């Protein structure tokens, strides 16, 4: 069911997507578009918390990271390390640094191979080492005044970027609801094609109900964008309408159900392994993958949205280009409503407890993100080029195969 919720939620809400592009470790999926094909849902543990844990297994706590940058000189390889991580029972703070070695190596190599200059001095080499475009630094802190509430703030600066990134989040857990308030300037988004966008200012307030026993769930939210989105790769492309300036009120509901064809329920005896040295408790590496089964699940629901304000900005965005972003073809409806649905079949063998070969899983999921767009596509056929470009106008079939090799599981 988690895969179904991710697929459906991403069509209407700005879900967190894992990315190494920023030190915070996450970007937002563009609302109103399918979930990026090669993306994964971001972990609740932010990047600094992950580096704090993973650093224990790397020499000197230095962790390699790989992500292509807009500047070819900077290279794709970087090294990250956590310098400070003081913590108490309800508060922690972390300071993370990142270094890209390619540009430094190229610059020093050029100094030694330059025939017009003498042997480079220590001052010349130090100048390249201190080049600010090689480094990125981030600071993040979290405070929990109560067990059900936490406040998180983070800021980071990248040497190759002119402005810093700031983000604040307030989360409060009620008995049957979750309340989330987020603000970021700028906010990083990623669309279904993998294109990154920077929105100068983004603020959102979200109320999410927990799934009831009947499978019913609803969600209410407010989302405000300020400033015009900037495509980070510099290409002249149309900005998604959901990223244009304005205030949006959203509401959605869904009903989900799952039925097992067969399932081998895990018992406590199944997790006990008998060896020559005695009995050992060997649970599954992932509790969600601990039971072999075959099941079918589905979600159906609806959504509505209303856009307010910033009409002047929206009108100007339709007739101008901002920093290489064309918005001439973008028209955003002030009111919209739609239906969506998804069905998934899953079969799994193995308990994911052994060192290797203990998990084989296949998921086949069919998503219908927009019933209205699909109906228009059927009625108009191939006459409208706009419908052909709409990612929500056709169903999406997703196939996922998981096979355990060693103690890890590969998708």
UniProtKB/TrEMBL annotation:
It comes from the Eukaryota. GO terms for cellular component: chloroplast envelope. InterPro entries: TGD4-like. One of its GO terms (biological process) is acylglycerol transport. GO terms for molecular function: phosphatidic acid binding. PANTHER family: EXPRESSED PROTEIN. This is Protein TRIGALACTOSYLDIACYLGLYCEROL 4, chloroplastic. It comes from Cannabis sativa.
